[in-house]
Structure formats: structure tokens, C-alpha cells
Design brief:
This protein is an all-alpha fold and 204 residues long. Helix content is 76%, strand content 0%. The longest helix is centred in the first third of the chain and has 123 residues. About 15% of the residues have low confidence. Keywords: Coiled coil.
Length: 204
């Protein structure tokens, strides 16, 4: 009887231990499944924002490329407009510069005519070419050129006056031969005179 009770007690203890192990295994499995489900929920929760971020980045990159392309096109248009303006300004400058040159040449021509008249007046006062050159501080060659310019201008005035004047009696008096310009010795010109390309201008 005692042995039977002892055997029953042992079976009960083994059964309780087995049940405890099984219960512990069940709890561990349940906890594992819960952890797996929680991990799946966490993964699912993380996938949404990640996908949203990828989509947003792609949209930002597209906007960036579109804006850069628009800025490049705007820059090209502005540069083309600047090129057109530069060309127009360059043409305007050339026209203005040409007008300035023409005005300057006209004014210089007028002053050269004054110089030629002065030289002609001095030469008409029986002053030789070398003396005139030394007096004015220019080369004898320039004196000769100015004298010829004055003579040509005077001849042009006479032709113009003759073309516009009323017809009158022809003067039968013989025309005096033009005075022969005395030769000029360049060595007689003062060493202080300086030759110029067309018409010498006395130094201040």
C-alpha cells in the first residue's frame, strides 16, 4: 500500500513537471509569436514613411532639375539679349566715333585753311620760305604745302565767283605770269623747327 502511494506521488510529480515544462514552452512560443508580430508591425510601420521619403526625394529632384533647366534657359535668353544690345551699342559707338572724326577733320581743315592764309600773307610780304618756316616754327616743306593750299583755295574762290557773276566785258589786258616760288634750301631752316605729317603746328 505504501509503495502504491509512493508510485502515485512520483507520477503526480512527473506529470506536474511535464505540465510545467509544456506550459513554459507554450508561453515561450506565444511570446516569440508576439515578438514576431510586433516586429512585423514595426517593419510595416517603417515601410510607409520610407516609401513616402523616397517618393518625396524623387519629386524634389525632378523639381530641382526643372528649375535648373528653366534658369539655364532664362540665362541663355538674357545672354542673347545682352549680345544683341552689345552689338547695337557697338554699332552706335562706331557711328558716333565716325561723326566725331568727321567733325574733327572738318574743324582741323578750317584751321589749316587759316594757317595757309597766314602763310600766304607772310609770303606776300616778301618773306622767303625759309624765313617763314623759321618765323612760324615749321618746316620749309610745310610752308610750301600751305602756300599751295592757299593758292588752290584762292583759285577755287575765283572760279566760283566767275561762275556766278553776271557776264561783263572781257578784260583784254594780258594776264601776268604767276610768280615763281623761290627755291628753298632745307639747310637754311632753323634746327628748332619740327616737320609734321601734313601740316606742322608750331609748338607752344
Amino acid at each position: 500500500m505504501v509503495e502504491r502511494q509512493t508510485s502515485d506521488s512520483r507520477r503526480k510529480r512527473r506529470s506536474s513537471a511535464t505540465l510545467a515544462r509544456l506550459e513554459a514552452a507554450r508561453r515561450r512560443r506565444a511570446e516569440q509569436l508576439e515578438r514576431e508580430r510586433e516586429n512585423e508591425r514595426r517593419v510595416d510601420a517603417a515601410l510607409g514613411p520610407f516609401a513616402e521619403a523616397v517618393t518625396a526625394i524623387e519629386a524634389v529632384e525632378r523639381r530641382r532639375e526643372d528649375r535648373i533647366a528653366a534658369l539655364e534657359a532664362q540665362l541663355d535668353r538674357k545672354l542673347a539679349e545682352l549680345d544683341r544690345q552689345r552689338a547695337a551699342k557697338g554699332a552706335e559707338f562706331e557711328r558716333s566715333a565716325e561723326q566725331v572724326r568727321a567733325d574733327a577733320e572738318m574743324e582741323i581743315g578750317e584751321w589749316r585753311a587759316v594757317m595757309a592764309t597766314s602763310v600766304a600773307e607772310i609770303r606776300a610780304a616778301d618773306v622767303g620760305a625759309a624765313e617763314t618756316a623759321a618765323l612760324l616754327g615749321i618746316s620749309a616743306k610745310t610752308v610750301t604745302a600751305l602756300s599751295r593750299s592757299a593758292a588752290a583755295s584762292e583759285a577755287g574762290k575765283h572760279r566760283s565767283d566767275g561762275a556766278t557773276a553776271d557776264a561783263g566785258p572781257v578784260d583784254a589786258s594780258p594776264v601776268a605770269s604767276p610768280a615763281v616760288e623761290e627755291p628753298v634750301d632745307e639747310q637754311d631752316v632753323s634746327s628748332e623747327t619740327r616737320p609734321y605729317s601734313d601740316v606742322d603746328v608750331p609748338a607752344d
